[in-house]
Amino acid sequence: MNKILLAAGAAALAISGPALAGGQQGGGHGGGHGGGGQGKAKVERGGGGPKAAVQRQGGGNDRAQMKAERGNRGQGQVAKIDRGPPRADKVDRGGGKVDRGDRKVDVVDRAVVRVRDGGAPRVAVANYYGFDGGGCPPGLAKKGNGCLPPGQAKKLVGSALAPAYLGAMLDGPYRDWYRDDDRYFYRMGDGYIYRVDRGSNLISALFPYYDRDYSYYPVGMMYPSDFNYYNVPYQYRTYYPDGGDYLYRYGNGAIYSLDPQTQAVQSIVALLAGDLGVGQRLPATYGVYNVPLQYRAQYYDTPDNWYRYNDGYIYRVDPTTQLITAVINALV
Amino acid sequence: MKKLKFIALGAASLALLSACDKNGDNPAAPTAESAKAAGEDTIAKGLPGGSKFAEAAKSVGLDATLGGPGPYTVLVPTDAAFDKLPAGALDTLMKPESRADLTGVLSYHILPGTMLAEDIGKAIDAGGGKTEIATMGGGTLTATKEGDKIVLTDAAGTKAIVTTADSKRSNGVVHEIDSVLMPSK
């Protein structure tokens, strides 16, 4: 942005015509995501979207092993996108069930170790799963599009999921966004999240694992055809189903409405932060209480519990350890 | 010919009524379900018509976000704040080829959940005089106090004072600020 501002300022001083910032294509923003998006709309529905349904996942004990390092997320910027240090997650999970007054809420406990490195965004789950579940070779995944060159990812659809990935459960916020159901299960690997049809055991859709890079697809741009499947996070599906006037797709930190004919982005219907997940340490940037007003009488900070809102969920936090201990409600 | 015009007008009216019926009184929300969850008095509806922030948000399709379920905390720079930008900067951002950039700038003014001024103030106090706040755009703002006022500082050190706080809407809250904040780089 500074570049744009400087350029604009220079333009004003020099009155030198349109050669400066104005003529520049939006830098790295969105440009690398293109990829076309031709063809007809794939109209798919997810599994519906029951509210406030928090799944129990797995069993076992909490094993919180943390490296709390958060600071700035990839900084959004203007003129040139640099997502900042990439994040990598190592996951350990547990589960539990909590009785909260007059209702029972299933909770999910799990630990995430966040790692940063200086390379491309990737998810280093190799040590945990014994394979390179999310990493990409150098030169790929620069745009958060997974590990394959443009156009190649789509070829995975219809093929069988690599056996090594069958145990690669989603982590971080993705576990709450994409839940296994009777029709599909979700796994990750090679920089992608795979939606696998339980009936055929074949991959029915995929999309980039690390796509929360905040370089939004701008209005007018065609949504990438490689990932043009219904992938709206679970908690938003009631609001944004396919089959109506628009298609809805998630990508790069937002849910978009698409023109069903052209696949072009019509609007950004929701922004998602993707910052919180059970088992993680609460980022330092979430010190401010932000629970929606209508839930404040029920979920307010005490010496024993804090509550923070993110992407349709309220999370419970242990003030002492700063660990996010449970998803206690789904708002949307 | 007149008859044709009437038929066309009637069809247009029906289409409009159908749209209104589907989304209630919230044209920014694309589905009835999202409109219902967003409520009647959304952030999008509360923005002054024709204001620079409202126009900018609309130009990049973020009016749907601000008219959707949320909730979000939105830092809305006044028109005077936009006027403080270097000459030509806003015009540049409003060009079609800059939509991605403008989306990034605006999402830097949108925070997750509902943060009242009191909530921010408490976190500042708890943090020994400052607190970091995540934005939906991925960057971070630093909040401090100057007297009774909340001050937000962007990555480049630009400060914005909250001049009007806590305009509560059905899908979040709006704080008016006196400067435009910019994501890093």
Biggest sheet details of chain A: 3 strands, antiparallel
CATH H-tier superfamily of chain B: FAS1 domain
CATH fold-level assignment of chain B: FAS1 domain
What is the strand arrangement across the widest sheet of chain B? 2-1-7-6-5-4-3
Alpha carbon gyration radius of chain B = 19 Å
Roughly how much helix do the residues of chain A carry, as a percent range?
under 10%
| Total DSSP helices of chain A | 3
- Principal-axis shape of chain B equals globular
> What is the domain tally of chain B?
1
Shape of chain A: globular
Q: How much of the residues of chain B is beta strand, in percent?
A: 15-25%
What is the average of the pLDDT values of chain B? 88
- Total strands of chain A: 11
In spatial order, strands of the major sheet of chain A run: 3-4-5
- Unreliable spans of chain A are 1-134
The helix-strand sequence of chain A is HEEHHEEEEEEEEE
InterPro entries (chain B): Adhesion/Biosynth-related, FAS1_dom_sf, FAS1_domain
Organism (chain B): Sphingomonas rhizophila
Pfam families (chain B): Fasciclin (PF02469)
Protein name (chain B): Fasciclin domain-containing protein
